[in-house]
Structures are given as C-alpha cells and as structure tokens.
Amino acid sequence: MSSLINAPEYDPRRDNLVRYTIFGGIGLVLFAAVLGVAGLFTGHGLFFVNIPAEHKVSNFLTALEVKDYAKAYGIYWNDPDWQQHPKAHSDYPLSRFTEDWTVDSPVKGPITSHHVDVSKKDGSGMFGGSIIVGVTVNGGQRIFVNVIRTDGTLSCCSVTHEIEY
C-alpha cells in the first residue's frame, strides 16, 4: 500500500504513451469511418469492397474490345481454364457467346471503349448476393453487368439509352 509519502515517482513516458494510444485509437476509428463513407459516396461500395468486381468487368470488356472472345468467355464464366472442359459450359458455348457480343451485341456495334462508372450491391445482407456494375461503352451508351458473388460469374446485360452530356 502506498501513501503520499512513498508515492511512485512521476513517469512522463507512461503519460505520453497513454495519451498517444488514446489519440491514435480515435484517429484510427475516424480514418475507418471516412474510408467507409468515401467508398459509398464514390460509388464503389462500403469500404471499396466492389472494386474487385469492377476490375473483373473492366477486364471482360477489355477482352471484348481486342476481340479476344476466348479470354472474355473465361472471365464471363470465372473459369480461365474453360478450354480444358468445354462441356461444363455447353448450355452457353463460346460460339453463341461470340455471336451475342458481335452480331447480337447488347450495344450498337462492337465495343471499342469503356469506362466503369459505378457499382452497387444487389440483394440482401451486408454485401448483397451480387454487384451490379454500371459501365459507359463506346463513349455514350450505358450497360449494367451483374457479378455474382458466390461463384464470380457474370450475367449480362441491361442496356440504357444513350447518355446525354
């Protein structure tokens, strides 16, 4: 038991450690809150969790731009080795996929450029069952590509009218 007579000596390092720990903790919480809200306001999801889906859609559309339909097909099915087991995707073969993105394209003509604009979760739960990615293609037409969270596949596309600038 200590009394005022034999009290421990003042240690400024301990006080500084406590002070810096408290301010550091508050700063960390504020940074996390700003990061989370910034993701929502910029259209990339809470804490930017939709960015991997946006990259997947961008890679898919880049493959279509350079007419690498085999690579785009692999991204579509989330199966880069699809050529080793083509029967697994026989309900939607590469020939039909290529036709859908050339002759029967959801956009007018081939895709020559794209820009990922926004992404939103779809479905219930904290992060939803899928992510809808809004993309401007060919400088003025908006398409929406759905990225399924459970298996990473894509489903495509809903198309809106030309965007007015």
- The number of domains is 1
- The helix fraction, in percent, is 25-40%
Inertia-based shape: elongated
Please give the count of helices: 4
| Cα end-to-end separation | 77 Å
Strand count, sense and barrel status of the largest sheet are:
4 strands, antiparallel
How does this model look, in words?
Helix 2 runs antiparallel to helix 3. A 4-stranded antiparallel beta sheet has the order 1-2-3-4, with helices on one face. The chain is 36% helix and 21% strand. By secondary structure, the chain is an alpha+beta fold. The chain has one domain.
What descriptors fit this protein?
165 residues, alpha+beta, 4-stranded antiparallel β-sheet, 36% helix, elongated
Please give the structural blueprint.
Layout: H1 12-41, H2 51-65, H3 69-76, H4 94-100, E1 114-122, E2 130-137, E3 141-148, E4 154-162
